[in-house]
Amino acid sequence: MIVEALFYEEFRDKLRCLLCPHHCVLGKNQYGLCSVRANKNGSLKTINYGEITSIAMDPIEKKPLYHFKPTKNILSAGSFGCNFTCDFCQNYSIAQGQPESNYLSPEELIKIALRFDDNIGIAFTYNEPSIWYEYVLDTSKKLKETYPHLSIVLVTNGYIETEPLKKLLPFVDAMNIDLKAFQEDFYKKVCGGHLEFVKRTIEEAFERCHVEITTLLVNGLNDSEEEIAKVASYLGELDKNIPLHLSRYFPTYKMNRPATDIEVMLADKKIAEKYLNYVYVGNVDMNHSTYCPQCKKILIERTGFSSKMMIHDNVCPDCGYGIKIVL
């Protein structure tokens, strides 16, 4: 469905989109880098409003969110398009293309979410939710107006301008934000963006909702111990309790480097744990359980995406250490 977009201005005889830091300047019938926002007859239109390419009931741990309502399920929905061009994109068929989609109004998506007794809300994921902005905002507002106990989750690259982010955040309960590297050169050459704007999003979101971070470790590009120390120390300065997910890269899309070495990932995990209380290794078949940072008692036992709670509140039952987990 095509609707008028938010956040743009006239720029000479063109339009400038202000949703994300690219600030694309669009002539007549031109599309932005995201491939979903276009200058149509002198106004900015978005072509993916309500267009669903993927929808599923997922464990919240699959987002991945390990410290937000663990053991619960969440309705996950995505559209098409992205404002990054990552060479290693795992969802490139919807992020970089325009596959078949089905329209669902915000009300219809909410009705689907309500069908499941064990569902905690709606997660906008699979492709980049920030460029699905108008639909995400409308759906989130409608959900919170009527069902405030249900949650809104964003799984995002964090590449969004401050004004639209601040307008959306009051309706968001949790975010998993990709921090793809701590090198400007990596962001520019591999992803088509800039690090500083992602850091800004992390800092804005951290003040207003639950935040977890994912860094995909790409073999030989961003998996050095020095790189991970920079990522983890940056997050640790915000809060040592921010969960960091170090995810394993596999060759896909335009990148054919070998899969990241698991031993390298485990070494990176040890480095990150010098700065953060909770570091997890993803895309790897191993222990993903959560332990008390102080006494090492197991708090949440995880096997794959299945979790078993060993706590009933935010305090370690053995040593009394305060645990930052949204139950």
Short description:
This protein has about 325 residues and is α/β, with parallel strands linked by helices.
Task: Write a structural description.
The protein is built from 8 helices and 19 strands. By secondary structure, the chain is of the alpha/beta class. It has 2 domains: 44 residues, no CATH class; 236 residues, TIM Barrel. Strands 8-9-11-12-13-14-15-16 form an 8-stranded mixed β-sheet. Helix 2 packs across helix 3. The longest helix has 14 residues. It is globular.
Structural class by SSE content: alpha/beta
Quaternary structure classification = single chain
Separate helix tally: 8
> Strand order, biggest sheet?
8-9-11-12-13-14-15-16
CATH uppermost class of the largest domain: Alpha Beta
Runs in which pLDDT lies below 50 for 5 or more consecutive residues are none
CATH architecture of the largest domain: Alpha-Beta Barrel
Overall tally of structural domains: 2
**So what's the overall shape?**
globular
Major beta sheet summary? 8 strands, mixed
The average pLDDT value, as a whole number, equals 97
Report the span from N to C terminus: 37 Å
Characteristic terms for this protein:
alpha/beta, single chain, eight-stranded mixed sheet, TIM Barrel, three-stranded antiparallel sheet, 327 residues, 25% strand
